[in-house]
């Protein structure tokens, strides 16, 4: 029996994964968590074989959660379940100990195959993710040498510039006509992309590498 733990900040995603796996005789969901902090608290006691881990989590993001889990349990098998397709994020997750990466639009068979593959000691990347990683190797080599961070989207740059101008989250939301939560999501994604832990770190690297331009 493969014991699976699911970490995602959306209850609907967790419930969907549970439904997807409930009829598998050799897979059992033994626990869930809505944040990285809760996952770090519950997983050591639950002792799962495989963790399905979202990257975009509130508080401690999925990359740092993965890193900490692997540090305390090197044999834990972690599969990133994410909507992010950027090669930099995929590589960061894998370099911090994940054994698999599956996009959230993957079908039932693919998720089950990923779980069984990593449980048996092999790495699993779904076809779309594998293509992204392969195609990025040559095209990003020169750019990476000059700038260690991925390019921010237009909206992320707009949010970042307003952060640098000392606007609050609500003020940014009002100025850009987007919700408070959307601003926080953009901020969280930029923290993940740049590998910093907080807004102060984001401001530092933004000026150092001119990410807002």
UniProtKB/TrEMBL annotation:
Span of domain HTH luxR-type: 145-210
Annotated positions of the 4-aspartylphosphate modification: 54
GO molecular function, one term: DNA binding
InterPro entries named among the record's database cross-references: CheY-like_superfamily (IPR011006), NreC/VraR/RcsB-like_REC (IPR058245), Sig_transdc_resp-reg_C-effctor (IPR016032), Sig_transdc_resp-reg_receiver (IPR001789), Tscrpt_reg_LuxR_C (IPR000792), WalR-like (IPR039420)
Pfam families with a match to the protein in the record: GerE, Response_reg
Coiled coil spans: none
Keyword Phosphoprotein: yes
Protein's name according to its UniProt entry: DNA-binding response regulator, NarL/FixJ family, contains REC and HTH domains
Lineage: Bacteria, Pseudomonadati, Bacteroidota, Flavobacteriia, Flavobacteriales
């Amino acid at each position: 029996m493969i014991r699976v733990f699911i970490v995602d900040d959306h209850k609907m995603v967790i419930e969907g994964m549970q439904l997807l796996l409930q009829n598998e005789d050799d897979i059992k969901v033994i626990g869930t968590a809505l944040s990285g902090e809760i996952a770090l608290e519950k997983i050591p006691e639950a002792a799962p074989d495989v963790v399905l881990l979202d990257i975009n989590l509130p508080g401690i993001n999925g990359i740092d959660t993965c890193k900490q889990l692997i540090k305390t349990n090197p044999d834990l098998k972690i599969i990133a379940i994410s909507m992010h397709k950027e090669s930099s994020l995929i590589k960061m997750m894998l370099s911090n100990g994940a054994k698999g990466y599956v996009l959230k639009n993957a079908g039932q068979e693919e998720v089950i195959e990923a779980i069984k593959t990593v449980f048996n000691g092999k790495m699993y990347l779904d076809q779309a993710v594998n293509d992204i990683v392969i195609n990025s190797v040559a095209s990003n080599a020169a750019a990476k040498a000059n700038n260690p961070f991925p390019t921010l989207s237009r909206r992320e740059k707009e949010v970042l510039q307003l952060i640098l101008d000392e606007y609050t989250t609500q003020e940014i939301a009002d100025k850009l006509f987007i919700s408070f939560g959307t601003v926080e999501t953009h901020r969280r994604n930029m923290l993940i992309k740049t590998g910093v832990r907080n807004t102060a770190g984001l401001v530092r690297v933004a000026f150092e590498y001119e990410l807002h331009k």
